[in-house]
Inverse folding.
């Protein structure tokens, strides 16, 4: 009599991330959900002059928009580290540039020369619009390198609940690109290799220790996610001014994603651990210690979701990635809707229309700008007919890296 071989329960099994994260994964859907979350969060301050969604519920620790930004950095950390390990430095930086910059530049142009003039006409301020000290040309000059040094244009939107700023979301792009440069540097000196990956773990542990040292000074560890540390910021070429208050937690979250990739042979993907992570995330968001406990738990939860996403949902974002476009266009769209008093119809109508218009803008951005730009990814390499055969590369290491952007994200 033979004993029937029992199949392990998929949910209770704990395979390493290297085995659990295959060709079909949830990165596309997760990025889109995070981008849409920013719209829901920003609807409160942009449309109604109140705190971002989730701020009161977390007792001032965080908000939905900030959580979404953290999620982008985790996913980006994993995917960008994979790309940095696979490509030479020049090719890596080129791929990152064509993913971020063309759509960003087109968004700047449309904001300065289409949206702003229409806003000026609506507000009756076309006289002096072009000659204003902070006019559209100055807006382009100040912001083209990702470092945002001018938020407003010609003094417009001054009566909105969130006055002046045309696109407050794009601040996080400079922080993400900073992380790209860090990955490029670490890859160039060989730190991302298997034998030296421990150095990255030491760096991330140092950032975590710094966050803990700040949190212990707050009652119930309820430190805000971007606590005022008193440390001076940095001003870097192209990236502009970077606040260490925001840089440290964001690089920490990016680092957690990087560690997931570097230690994917050891990181176990288990449903029980995911449930515990969810409980810690929700509990700390309400009662305290969110930055030092809830954020790492959130990072694990996102990675688990990416690996365990139901198969039908893994198709989202594989051919049409709207997440970046939604992110960079939602803020100006919401500001214009407020100017047109759409917010008087309530949160549901205002937010629903914001989502609809942002998705439409993202579709145009993808098909007219982002997708054509991605065709330049292999510019300068040998043509398929003359190139030497290469080993097959998993889809997750190509499509996701090409389309993935952490948005690129938003403070909240």
């Amino acid at each position: 009599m033979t004993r029937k071989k029992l199949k392990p329960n998929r949910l209770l099994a704990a395979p390493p991330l290297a085995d659990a994260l295959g060709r079909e994964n949830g990165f596309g859907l997760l990025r889109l959900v995070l981008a849409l979350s920013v719209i829901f969060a920003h609807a409160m301050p942009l449309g109604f002059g109140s705190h971002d969604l989730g701020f009161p519920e977390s007792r001032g620790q965080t908000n939905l928009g900030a959580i979404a930004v953290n999620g982008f950095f985790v996913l980006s950390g994993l995917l960008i580290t994979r790309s940095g390990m696979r490509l030479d430095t020049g090719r890596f930086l080129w791929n990152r540039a064509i993913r971020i910059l063309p759509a960003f530049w087109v968004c700047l142009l449309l904001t300065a020369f289409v949206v702003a003039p229409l806003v000026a006409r609506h507000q009756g301020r076309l006289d002096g619009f072009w000659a204003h000290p902070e006019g559209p040309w100055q807006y382009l000059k100040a912001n083209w390198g990702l470092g945002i040094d001018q938020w407003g244009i010609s003094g417009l939107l001054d009566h909105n609940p969130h006055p002046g700023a045309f696109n407050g979301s794009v601040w996080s792009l400079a922080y993400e690109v900073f992380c790209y440069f860090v990955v490029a540097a670490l890859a160039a000196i060989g730190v991302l290799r298997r034998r030296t990956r421990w150095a990255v773990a030491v760096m991330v542990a140092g950032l975590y220790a710094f966050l803990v040292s700040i949190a212990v000074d707050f009652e119930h560890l309820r430190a805000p996610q971007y606590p005022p540390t008193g440390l001076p910021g940095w001003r870097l070429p192209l990236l502009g001014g970077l606040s260490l208050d925001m840089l440290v937690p964001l690089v920490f979250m990016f680092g957690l994603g990087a560690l997931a990739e570097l230690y994917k042979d050891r990181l176990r993907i288990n449903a029980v651990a995911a449930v515990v992570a969810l409980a810690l995330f929700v509990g700390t968001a309400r009662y305290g210690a969110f930055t030092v406990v809830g954020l790492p738990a959130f990072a694990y939860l996102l990675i688990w979701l990416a690996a365990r996403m139901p198969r039908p949902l893994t198709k989202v974002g594989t051919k049409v990635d709207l997440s970046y476009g939604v992110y960079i266009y939602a803020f100006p769209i919401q500001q214009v809707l407020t100017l047109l008093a759409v917010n008087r119809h309530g949160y549901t109508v205002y937010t629903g229309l914001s989502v609809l218009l942002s998705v439409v803008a993202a579709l145009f951005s993808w098909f007219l700008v982002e997708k054509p730009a991605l065709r330049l990814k292999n510019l300068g390499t040998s043509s398929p007919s003359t190139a030497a055969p290469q080993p097959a590369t998993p889809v997750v290491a190509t499509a996701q890296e090409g389309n993935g952007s952490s948005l690129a994200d938003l403070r909240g």
Notes: Residues 89-122 form the longest helix (34 residues). Confidence is low (pLDDT under 50) at residues 1-7, 383-412. The chain has one domain: 40-377+394-403.
